[in-house]
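Running co-folding for 2-acetamido-2-deoxy-beta-D-glucopyranose.
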Amino acid sequence: MHRPIAIAKLALVLAAAAALSSGFFVVAHAHASCLPRERDALLAFNQGINDTYDALVSWQAEEGAPHHDCCLWAGVTCSNQTGHVTELDLGGTDLVGQISPSLLSLEHLEYLDLSWTSLHEPSGRVFPEFLCSLHNLRHLDLSDTFFSGRVPAQLANLSKLEYLDLSATLFSGTLPPQFGNLSDLRHLDLSFMKNIHTPTDISWLTDLHLLEYVDMSDINLSTADVLLVANTIPSLKALILINCSLPNADQTLTHLNLTKLEQLDLSRNYLGHPIETCWFWNTTSIQELGLDETNLYGPFPTELGGMTSLQRLYFRRNGNSATMTVDLKQLCDLGEIDLDESLAFGNITEFVMKLPQCSFSKLKHLSSTDNNMTGTLPDMMGHLNSLQVIVLSNNSITGAIPSGLRNFTSLEILELSLNQLSGQIPVLARSLISLSISMNYFSGHLPSDFGSPYLAKLDLSYNYLTGHVPGHICELKNLAVLDLSNNLFEGEFPWCSPSPSMEFLLLSNNNFAGNFPSWLQNCSSLVFLDLGVNKFYGRLPAWIGELVKLRFLQLNHNMFNGDIPVSILNLILLQHFSLASNNISGSVLSSLSKLRVMTLEHPLGVGSHWLYGDLDILSVVMKQQELKYGGYALDESGFLRYPVLHM
Ligand SMILES: *[C@@H]1O[C@H](CO)[C@@H](O)[C@H](O)[C@H]1NC(C)=O
Ligand SMILES: *[C@@H]1O[C@H](CO)[C@@H](O)[C@H](O)[C@H]1NC(C)=O
Ligand SMILES: *[C@@H]1O[C@H](CO)[C@@H](O)[C@H](O)[C@H]1NC(C)=O
Ligand SMILES: *[C@@H]1O[C@H](CO)[C@@H](O)[C@H](O)[C@H]1NC(C)=O
Ligand SMILES: *[C@@H]1O[C@H](CO)[C@@H](O)[C@H](O)[C@H]1NC(C)=O
Ligand SMILES: *[C@@H]1O[C@H](CO)[C@@H](O)[C@H](O)[C@H]1NC(C)=O
Ligand SMILES: *[C@@H]1O[C@H](CO)[C@@H](O)[C@H](O)[C@H]1NC(C)=O
Ligand SMILES: *[C@@H]1O[C@H](CO)[C@@H](O)[C@H](O)[C@H]1NC(C)=O
Ligand SMILES: *[C@@H]1O[C@H](CO)[C@@H](O)[C@H](O)[C@H]1NC(C)=O
Ligand SMILES: *[C@@H]1O[C@H](CO)[C@@H](O)[C@H](O)[C@H]1NC(C)=O
Ligand SMILES: *[C@@H]1O[C@H](CO)[C@@H](O)[C@H](O)[C@H]1NC(C)=O
Ligand SMILES: *[C@@H]1O[C@H](CO)[C@@H](O)[C@H](O)[C@H]1NC(C)=O
């Protein structure tokens, strides 16, 4: 009985000892605390500001307040030797208000981040030039702020600056050549400054001998000879020039200095010359190459196969006039290759056989849609088993889905819609989340077990699949989109303990029979239900009115009978309801027109969940249905422009 007390005593002794020793520790390593003059400067700054999101709630002045020491305030960092404030990081805080000149007291400030704030000078949105007197600054981030007026040439006074980000600011005029004085600069981001004038002289960049990163996206550089300038800066690692009105990239240089270049992005410049003549193909240091929307054409050069540092190649939307037959087998770091809407033709068999063949494959993302590719998917794809995403929609690929795909243990997305694939649907990779093989010539019965328990999207529409849907479908607990429409399925749909996340269910244009599926009663997330053109029969259940998220309900061309349940009036989001060609009677019909008016008040696109990256199931499937059903156009605010009531 005494033991607990003894233990408690022991604990007390230990705690006291710990307190003593930790006190000693604190004294021995005391960080210098905040200087009163600098604290007052921060408080004066805080006074001019509206801190809607409580970002500065720790900035408390009173003696004895938990954070009287301003070195402990959010966003503030001090030198632990001198106690001077060296860093002020207010980026992303959404602070609104005035920048107090009191900040000038922070003479030792080296790092200032005001990005994503709406701070300004007392007199307006002009840039507070006094910031150019913080001469110890090494890092200045003003991106996504609302400062306007001419680009402040006085920034060139900050001679220690290593990092300058003015992206997405509203500064106007020309880029000041004085920036060439910033000889320590390593990182320069001038992208998306939409008020900068052309012609843009950037010759001052040649004075920045330490520059590693430069982004001038969206600045019109049509008259600046960017490559000649860049080539004088051998330290460059990243050159990002998206949408810069560059006229070409086929300059010939006597000597290429850019041997450290890792990232090159020339996307959205309409270069319009052969791919082969671009200047960068011998730059084997490149890791990421962006060439989307460049109108480059012709064959890729063999040099591509020697760019062994390459990790990502983007060549999308280039107008179907390029060809890719290069041997990429040695590109062991390649993680992503994306050629959508760019090739004139190609043979998928040969393309796949030339993809990296390394002892450890890193290729995760392969995309080549809308490319008029023929041939079959080879069965020997084992060298690519690191793939997570395979997207080859809208080509002319023939043959079957290779059974080896089952062994791709990371595969999450497989999109093969709009091809000429045939054969049965094989057992698939266990990791698969999304399978779209719509509009092919697949036939036969479904496998009794897909082998992919995590499937969230399964689109098998527009094929020649037959037989009953296996009961296994009920075990896919994550299923949100199931499209089996336009096949030759028959019989009753299996009785499911429902996938609670089901949002889109399309069974139309088959020979399904049976009563209105009772398991749907628990699918409270259902948005889109199409059972049209089947052999369903019986009465519509009253609980249909509990599916309150329904926007689209199509039951036409079945053998449903009886009354329309009054509960249908609960479906206030309904935008399309079709019961045509059934044996329905009842008096609810006249009330339904009221329903239609109500639906117009509810915008689309809320609350749906995300499948992968920015692929929003709701909007994607909704768009597909618009195409398939025709006539349902969404306007910008998400309203159905032509709500239709087919009876
Ligand atoms: C702070 O925000 C409130 C409410 O939005 C507004 O009324 C007030 O004028 C703002 N104050 C300053 C200094 O901007
Ligand atoms: C200052 O503090 C940091 C973090 O506690 C520590 O890593 C650094 O070594 C200290 N510098 C000096 C000079 O004491
Ligand atoms: C910038 O430097 C110039 C010349 O050194 C000086 O005249 C000017 O006052 C400085 N501007 C600021 C804002 O410190
Ligand atoms: C800054 O650049 C301007 C123009 O490029 C030049 O005239 C001036 O001497 C430079 N100032 C310093 C301090 O280097
Ligand atoms: C491309 O840059 C120009 C300015 O040079 C800008 O007006 C235009 O909006 C940009 N286009 C796109 C698609 O961002
Ligand atoms: C870029 O500047 C050139 C020359 O001033 C002009 O012809 C062209 O239209 C500009 N491009 C854009 C996208 O504004
Ligand atoms: C390569 O860079 C060096 C150093 O900046 C420069 O002197 C030389 O002119 C550059 N070569 C070319 C062809 O621009
Ligand atoms: C790449 O280098 C080889 C050999 O050095 C040369 O023949 C070829 O023309 C170069 N290609 C490009 C695009 O510069
Ligand atoms: C598709 O590729 C074939 C060659 O495989 C070519 O004859 C045909 O013109 C291409 N079609 C289109 C639309 O480019
Ligand atoms: C399929 O790709 C071709 C180019 O190969 C394109 O012209 C066509 O519009 C695409 N079809 C669809 C439905 O996207
Ligand atoms: C595609 O390439 C393979 C392998 O070289 C060849 O056997 C097949 O005939 C080609 N298919 C087409 C449609 O050209
Ligand atoms: C899949 O892997 C298993 C064992 O890892 C192997 O026996 C089988 O042949 C592979 N299947 C295919 C089609 O490659």
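Result summary
The first strand starts at residue 49 and ends at 50.
Residues 289 and 463 are 38 Å apart (CA to CA).
Job closed.
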